[in-house]
Design goal:
Elements: E1 23-24, E2 32-39, E3 42-49, E4 52-59, E5 68-71, E6 79-84, E7 90-94, E8 101-106, E9 109-112, E10 126-129, E11 136-140, H1 144-154, H2 161-164, E12 197-202, E13 207-213, E14 215-219, E15 225-232, E16 235-242, E17 249-250, E18 258-263, E19 269-274, E20 286-291, E21 297-299, E22 308-315, E23 318-325, E24 334-344
Antiparallel strand pairs: 1-24, 2-3, 3-4, 4-5, 6-7, 7-8, 8-9, 10-11, 11-12, 12-13, 14-15, 15-16, 16-17, 18-19, 19-20, 20-21, 22-23, 23-24
Length: 347
């Protein structure tokens, strides 16, 4: 287990949103920390130290104390997609069986979930679980020609820093690898990759249901509905659907990319990542909040050359997310290290 030091709060000035002051949660220069998840008084996140991958779990009332973790032990073993459950257990995906499968860590016991359904042909590339553990959702490509590339990318223990914090990029032909430059994510940008599909499964009944195309789904607390991303002609928008397939509706319609949603505990708001403020720049993404009923969208973070991602609800008024902001100059530059930050919503 790793000891985590509390960093001093850092202020970012913003004339547009004076109430939105991101604060550094963990100041770990030796670790990349990404994709936080919160449920039932627990925080779970993914961490990489060198080539060692871990899923970390801490208590919200003692975030800077000792952490429970699951670490990679086998050569080229990679753990990703840590998800907190209300009872203190947590889900993640792992390749230790030779292919990528979902796992559950409960009281230090590791159990592979629905092993028979997942194989080299069905990969849980993104994962979410209802707070009570009753419902799981994953997305995967059904293009056999792309399966091996996705496996290789998941299994890459030294995956580039840039791609670690932008997992949504694996589904676009022009974004999935590190390059010197990328096309803007906006309507009209071609993508030769077919859309992935979303699957719902229930561990108790072993039922596996394929819904429509989309990815990066976030379940509501009761596991009955989800918000997910759908890409069409270069445009990424957020959609809502019940897991029984009913009430499909579009939540955002924007020229640029809306990504990585997380539904609030009360089901009334969605926090997400977007590059709408940077006009489609892949490497300048910020945190936004959508009020589902009114459709109002609030910009929560901003900066120059900043990549914010993986937002989750720390509480009803606070968002936790990962970012490559520079702690010494957090509104202007980026550094080669993902850290966890938090920000209060504007009032």
């Amino acid at each position: 287990m790793l000891k985590i030091m509390l960093a001093a709060s850092l202020l970012i000035s913003s004339s547009a949103w004076a109430a939105s002051i991101p604060q550094l949660v963990y100041d770990n220069t030796f670790a990349d920390m990404t994709y936080p998840s919160v449920a039932g008084g627990y925080l779970v996140y993914s961490q990489r130290v060198g080539a060692n991958h871990q899923i970390m779990r801490v208590k919200l009332d003692n975030m800077y104390g000792s952490a429970q973790d699951v670490s990679s032990h086998l050569t080229n073993e990679v753990l990703r997609n840590g998800v907190a459950l209300a009872d203190g257990s947590f889900a993640y995906s792992d390749n230790r069986l030779g292919h990528i499968t979902p796992w559950l860590s409960n009281n230090q016991q590791q159990s592979s979930i629905h092993t028979g359904a997942f194989s080299a042909a069905l990969l849980p590339n993104h994962l979410d679980v209802a707070a009570d553990g009753s419902t799981w959702v994953v997305d995967t490509t059904l293009e056999s020609a792309r399966t091996q590339r996705l496996i290789t990318q998941h299994n890459n223990v030294k995956l580039d820093h840039e791609l670690m914090g932008q997992q949504w990029r694996i589904y676009h032909e022009r974004l999935w690898q590190k390059k010197s430059g990328y096309p803007d994510t906006k309507t009209g940008t071609s993508n030769a990759f077919a859309q992935p599909n979303i699957f719902i499964f229930k561990p108790e009944s072993a039922a596996l249901t394929m819904l429509g195309d989309g990815f990066d789904a976030s379940l509501t607390a009761d596991g009955k509905s989800m918000v997910f991303v759908r890409e069409n002609n270069g445009n990424y928008d957020l959609w809502w659907q019940n897991i029984d397939g009913t009430e499909l509706k579009r939540l955002t319609k924007n020229t640029y990319a809306d990504l990585e949603p997380d539904v609030s505990p009360d089901g009334k708001r969605v926090v997400f990542v977007s590059n709408r403020d940077s006009r489609g720049d892949v490497l300048q993404t910020f945190i936004h909040v959508l009020d589902i009923q009114s459709g109002e969208i609030t910009t929560v973070t901003s900066g120059l050359g900043v990549t914010d991602g993986g937002p989750a609800w720390l509480d009803n008024n606070t968002i936790i997310f990962h970012s490559n902001r520079d702690p010494k100059s957090p509104n202007n530059n980026t550094v080669d290290n993902w850290r966890l930050w938090k920000v209060a919503l504007p009032k």
